[in-house]
Amino acid sequence: MKVQAQAKVNLALDVIGKRNDGYHELDMIMAPISLYNDIEIDIHPVDQITCDGGKIPDHSTIHKTLALLRKEIGLRNHYAIHVLKRIPDQAGLAGSSADAAAVFRAVMAIEGIDLELVKQLEFAKQIGADVPFCLVNRLSRVQGIGEKIRVLPQGWKLSCLIVKPSYGISTPEAFERWHAQAPVHVDVDAVEDAIQNQDFVSLCERMGNALEKPAFQMRPELRELKQKMEALGFDRVMMSGSGSSLMGFFHDLSHLKRAKELCVGMDCFVEIVTIG
């Protein structure tokens, strides 16, 4: 079976605070994008996970997914899983979570297991905070630690340029730095309103990411990269997730294509994607 593991971006990310269990309460708007890993999964005598374009760690989200399903449900089979990676790592694009969600769905289909979505999401949050969203895989308001998902009206498609430098951002350190300074909050309701109204100008004005400032403190060169992109005239440039990917928005696709040509020389992963 061949499946796609679709990346995501954050159009809004607000940190509400830290919970007693150590996780952070978040309020976000997340959307799938047209960038994905290809995954091939087949029944095999033993579990075997391989990858083109990168190394799969021994405790990857795919390993966690198989272990959890084997423990909680009981699987009849073992699987050979091969990942062709296109989503860059440490990018704020949920590549590993997308892999987990895709494998989760594929294994459930092969095994003939039918679970209610609520139960699937309960299992998914044990694998990783972004895995529940990646299972739903639709433009959504996402809250809690990522398990509270409200799907928003579909149909509005946006294009943006993803620019991801060679370095990543440590998510735990980004949260630590967020706590160490005066908190920056994002009006996620206003971002949702802009999406509901399909108002591109308002969306560009209201989008925000509370982790962007901490990420720039950790990597000043990421702020410089944003400034270089802004100098190209983008309507808005913003970081996705905890970084280090930056999203550049133009209303006109021809301007986006021209900007891609100019960004290719920045020694970064550069790709135009469709959001939604």
Automatic annotation (TrEMBL):
Keywords tagged on the record: ATP-binding, Isoprene biosynthesis, Kinase, Nucleotide-binding, Transferase
One GO process term, biological-process aspect: isopentenyl diphosphate biosynthetic process, methylerythritol 4-phosphate pathway
Known EC number: 2.7.1.148
Pathway: Isoprenoid biosynthesis; isopentenyl diphosphate biosynthesis via DXP pathway; isopentenyl diphosphate from 1-deoxy-D-xylulose 5-phosphate: step 3/6
Record carries keyword Mitochondrion: no
SUPFAM superfamilies attached to this UniProt entry: GHMP Kinase, C-terminal domain, Ribosomal protein S5 domain 2-like
Positions of the GHMP kinase C-terminal domain: 193-260
Catalytic site: 8, 130
Transmembrane segments: none
InterPro entries (alphabetical): GHMP_kinase_C_dom (IPR013750), GHMP_kinase_C_sf (IPR036554), GHMP_kinase_N_dom (IPR006204), IspE (IPR004424), Ribosomal_Su5_D2-typ_SF (IPR020568), Ribsml_uS5_D2-typ_fold_subgr (IPR014721)
Gene3D superfamilies registered for this protein in UniProt: 3.30.230.10, GHMP kinase, C-terminal domain
Keyword S-adenosyl-L-methionine: no
Reaction equation(s) it catalyzes: 4-CDP-2-C-methyl-D-erythritol + ATP = 4-CDP-2-C-methyl-D-erythritol 2-phosphate + ADP + H(+)
GO molecular function: 4-(cytidine 5'-diphospho)-2-C-methyl-D-erythritol kinase activity; ATP binding
Domain GHMP kinase N-terminal: 62-136
Job description of the protein: Catalyzes the phosphorylation of the position 2 hydroxy group of 4-diphosphocytidyl-2C-methyl-D-erythritol.
Protein name: 4-diphosphocytidyl-2-C-methyl-D-erythritol kinase
Organism encoding this protein: Faecalicoccus acidiformans
